[in-house]
Amino acid sequence: MTTIAVTGHMDLTDASVPLVRDALREMLKPHATDLTGVSCVARGADSLFADIVLELGGRLVAVIPSKDYRQTKVKPDHAVMFDRLIAAAAEVSVLEHETANRSAYEDANRTLLTRADRLLAVWNGEPPSGSKGGGTADTVLEARAIGLPVDVVWPDGAARQV
Length: 162
Prior knowledge:
By secondary structure, the protein is an alpha/beta fold.
């Protein structure tokens, strides 16, 4: 069984969503017969990845950063997709953090990396902003530091919201 974790930008533009979705599907198709996808199911790249894992018949493992994540961080426009993905997940792991904060996100990303054979990063290649740990670039750097293979997905035309 191939276990692939995801990290990626939450703030994809509307025009980027189909581009990223198609790129993720192409990256995951070769693993479809024995795929486990590990995702925090956040808005954007994480949820697109989770949706495609399920579409391809894979097994979804959801890692939720904190006990209050659903109530405090999942916005109304993402709630239906989040709830659908959580309901379809083969496994849901809610970390022990009471509150969704930097520490919770960092732990969630570390959990992703320890569960995976490789990391798929929906990432524009920009370095960490330094303002918040647990971001996409931070997770890519951590994966590379521990020797986990990283595949970057950033199709032509993809962009982040300004």
